[in-house]
TrEMBL record:
Record has Repressor as a keyword: no
Membrane topology: Multi-pass membrane protein
Cellular compartment(s): Cell membrane
Source taxonomy: Bacteria, Bacillati, Bacillota, Bacilli, Bacillales
TM helices/strands, residue ranges: 9-30, 94-124, 136-156, 176-195, 230-256, 276-298
Record organism: Geomicrobium halophilum
Annotated PANTHER family: DIPEPTIDE TRANSPORT SYSTEM PERMEASE PROTEIN DPPB-RELATED (PTHR43163:SF6)
Protein name (record): Nickel import system permease protein NikB
Length: 315
């Protein structure tokens, strides 16, 4: 297990280096001139002299490889430049908005996992009964409903009609309820059905039949053999879902006026705030790599066969 963790961490650095190079080159294809965007946001007339001066100040007059090298050296020192729009350090701004998104996404993720596991277990246990039918209808409805419409629907009933919860903003725990539910319901519908299917498939596996033949108790068989292996597909998709949640949920944050990464990035893209856009893409790539690495560790911990398979590749 320690060797697997070490290999994944070592693979993280070349992956980030390659992604940063690709993203830097991709930024060059964005329409518009960063110098003109800087002058426009600074409310300075974009004369030829001003554009030339800004290009020299930002290092845009240097060759492309030199621009990337300068950016990489600064990035290693955690200096990602300053926002064209606000003039603040990009790292500090992104972390401020990311903390709001982190609070929202982690709460929604934990709620999703807990409820999905409960629904999935009961749906598999009471297969073809009323609860299973209900979970199937919930799965279809929860997956099909548009997120923005679900958010407006929850606001209409719980805020305007009943007055129980605030309609938007970031405040105490009550302000989390509606956006968390809006984020969680579609994922709960998907994850609970996936776990139910996985539980039913694993329960027919040969090692489960062999465990019953040995006279092991059903609770022990379910906990050690069925549930443990049935969670593997859920771990895979939950890692991807967590990455998307941490990347900033633009629609939900807009509906509930949540000051997170989604709304912040929409503003940055609209105003051609190049330093913010570039750092955001690199930062989100790092988040996805770390989340996928953690999912690999969890899968190897849940299923020892994956550890042995990984070890055999490096023999």
């Amino acid at each position: 297990m320690a060797a697997l963790i070490a290999r994944r961490i070592l693979m993280l650095f070349p992956s980030l280096l390659f992604l940063s190079m690709f993203i830097f080159l991709l930024m060059q294809l964005i329409p518009g001139d960063p110098a003109q965007a800087y002058l426009r946001l600074s409310q300075i007339p974009p004369t030829d002299e001003a554009i030339t001066a800004v290009r020299e100040e930002l290092g845009l007059d240097l060759p492309l490889y030199e621009q990337y090298w300068n950016w990489l050296i600064s990035a290693l020192q955690l200096d990602f430049g300053r926002s064209f729009l606000t003039g603040e350090r990009v790292l500090e701004e992104v972390l401020y908005y990311f903390l709001a998104t982190l609070q929202l996404s982690l709460t929604a993720f934990l709620l999703t996992i807990v409820i999905s596991v409960v629904i999935g277990i009961f749906a598999a246990r009471y297969q073809k009964r009323s609860f299973d039918t209900f979970s199937r209808l919930f799965s279809v409805g929860g997956s099909a409903i548009p997120t923005f419409w679900l958010g407006f629907l929850l606001v209409y009933f719980f805020s305007y009609q009943l007055g129980w919860l605030p309609s938007g903003g970031r405040g105490d725990w009550s302000s989390l309820v509606l956006p968390v539910l809006t984020l969680s319901i579609p994922y709960i519908a998907l994850f609970s059905r996936l776990l139910r299917t996985s539980l039913l498939e694993v329960s027919k596996a040969y090692y489960v039949t062999y465990s019953r033949a040995r006279g092991l108790r059903e609770p022990s068989i379910f906990r050690k053999h069925i549930l443990r292996h049935a969670l593997l597909p859920l771990l895979t998709v939950s890692g991807v879902a967590l990455g998307y949640l941490l990347a900033g949920t633009v629609i939900v944050e807009s509906v509930f006026s949540w000051p997170g990464m989604g709304r912040y990035m929409v503003t940055a893209i609209t105003n051609r705030d190049y330093p913010v856009i570039q750092f955001y893409i690199v930062f989100m790539a790092f988040i996805f790599l770390v989340v996928n690495m953690m999912v690999d560790w969890l899968q190897a911990w849940v299923d020892p066969r994956l550890r042995r398979r990984e070890g055999s590749r490096h023999v």
